Known about the structure:
mainly alpha
Amino acid sequence: MGIVKIDDELHEEARRASTVMCRSINAQAEFWMKIGMLAEANPTLSFNRIVEMQFAAADVRLTRAVAA
Length: 68
């Protein structure tokens, strides 16, 4: 584990987002970093596709919502 220094405003955004997403601030920052790294490595993929691929890699089965 290491310490990463970030801007106070970005830290506040991570704090607010972590509350909404029910994650710790550290977990929220880690999520953003991981998704950002994957997006840079795969610029043609959408955010949703990257997340779908991560779920598949973790063997998580997703159920699609059906519009009424």
